[in-house]
Amino acid sequence: MVDPAAPTSAPLDSGDITTAGPVPLDDALPQHVERVLAGYLDRRRTDVLGIDPAVAQAADALAGFVLGGGKRLRPTFAWWGWRGAGGDPQDEHAQGVLSAIAALELVQACALVHDDLMDASSTRRGRPTVHVEFARVHASNGWSGPPARFGAAVAILVGDLAQVWADDMFHSAALPEGAHARAGEPWRAMRTEVLSGQYLDVLAQASGDAAEATALKIDRFKTAAYTVERPLHLGAAIAGAEAPVLGAYRRYGADIGVAFQLRDDLLGVFGDPRVTGKPAGDDLREGKRTLLVAAALQRAEQRGDRAAHEVITRALGDPGLAGEELDRVRAALSELGAVQVVEQRIAALTGSALDALDAAPVLEPARARLFELAERATRRAW
């Protein structure tokens, strides 16, 4: 039975995705990505509706998740990677490129839905996470078994569905001859890297590994690879970029991607939930060994500050961390100089990335846009 109160998507625009619309692609890329995603998800909903209306409920949850928020950062990097390597928005294949890079949003949806479940997060973008919402559906219907187990099972399947449809969307995009073969390398590498980084993150939480090198490796593969580096690589590969551009993109992408995650780590502890869409301190409650935490613990040990060390270690993995105790952790992180360490690393990585970009034969207006994106990604307040 389909619960009428179950999560559903916003109305989908199933218009013709081969029509670029009145606004140039460069000037309104997120809206064009949204349009393509909406049309694709609407068509795929029809596929599962033919299996059973109940399955469409899961598809609606995925569509609602994908279309209900997000900055479309990954397709944006992929688009400007393509443009900087010679891609032309007036080309007959531009809409196919748009479809291929929009598939990155489905890869992200898979990662986020599964990540929320693994981290036991209750909200995402200010709304209940998929596993929480389906646990509510289970409980409201009085179904058998634990609601949380049902919610977890559905979240796993919704995330898997996002990954399957991401592959379908990418491989069915109308690209120039040879582009799929070239772009297959970053597409395959990206999926392996993000899963590897996710495993390393889970392992570090379980083992208590608080080494700075471990935190940075997790940032490199869990976030940087699929957020900036591989999307840029993907766009460039579709355009047939030469080695100097590919190398610069990968250096820029790895560094900006790690800096992006380090900014996210700071926001996760010190940010305003009304802006970030997630409760402050979630990373601490989940026991994540971020660079911020690793740097603080290392400095507490060096100074022999057992009190500060205990404040931080006691908070890691404490699901009830809030209020004055959270404030004490924040104060300890600041007083130990960990915030400054992370800010300095962000600045160094951003400088290295921009140097790599500046030295490469990247075409305008992509060069200027990538400089702007670096600023947005590393200095943001969201």
UniProtKB/TrEMBL annotation:
Xref: Gene3D superfamilies: Farnesyl Diphosphate Synthase
Pfam assignment, any one: polyprenyl_synt
Residue numbers spanned by region Disordered: 1-25
EC number: 2.5.1.84
Record's keyword terms, sorted: Magnesium, Metal-binding, Transferase
InterPro entries listed in its UniProt record: Isoprenoid_synthase_dom_sf (IPR008949), Polyprenyl_synt (IPR000092), Polyprenyl_synt_CS (IPR033749)
GO molecular function term, any single one: metal ion binding
One Gene Ontology biological process: isoprenoid biosynthetic process
Signal peptide: none
Source superkingdom: Bacteria
Entry cofactors: Mg(2+)
PANTHER family: GERANYLGERANYL PYROPHOSPHATE SYNTHASE, SHORT CHAIN ISOPRENYL DIPHOSPHATE SYNTHASE
Family per similarity comment: Belongs to the FPP/GGPP synthase family.
Protein name as it appears in the record: All-trans-nonaprenyl-diphosphate synthase (Geranyl-diphosphate specific)
Organism, as annotated: Pseudonocardia autotrophica
